Amino acid sequence: MGVNRRPSAIRVEIGELVLDGFHTDPARVATAFERELARLVREHGVPLAANGAVSVEALTGLPPLPAGLSARRLGQELARAVHEGLSGHGEVTP
């Protein structure tokens, strides 16, 4: 009998986010980013890690973000772009 189980814990570590061309409070961006990424991972998981642990050095090829966003909105949009990368979109450097 097959059981569709979700992992009991998912850990995503991001060493560095580089934001060029944005003039907003980095702490507020980080807070919004963490909240949105946590929500997305809770709701949708991390598809790249569906078969077990995975380590990704970099995600590239993600969509550009408009420079005029508020700190909150920038954090949310950045989290969505990163989650898209963790879902198999964009280029992954292992």
Question: Could you explain the architecture of this structure?
Answer:
With about 90 residues, the protein is mainly alpha-helical. It contains two helices and two strands. The chain has helices at about 25-45, 70-85, and strands spanning about 60, 90-94. The protein has a two-stranded antiparallel ribbon. Helix 1 packs parallel to helix 2. The mean pLDDT is about 80.
Core attributes:
94 residues; mainly alpha; 37% helix
Give a short summary of the structure:
The protein is mainly alpha-helical. The chain has 2 helices and 2 strands; from the N terminus they run H-E-H-E.
The major β-sheet equals: 2 strands, antiparallel
Decide which structural class fits the backbone.
mainly alpha
Number of discrete helical segments: 2
SSE order, as H and E?
HEHE
Please give the order of strands in the largest beta sheet. Answer: 1-2
Overall helicity = 25-40%
The rough form would be described as globular
Overall pLDDT metric: 78
> What are the low-pLDDT stretches, counting only 5+ consecutive residues below 50?
none
Distance between the termini: 34 Å
Number of strands: 2
Strand residue content: 5-15%
| Radius of gyration using CA atoms only | 14 Å
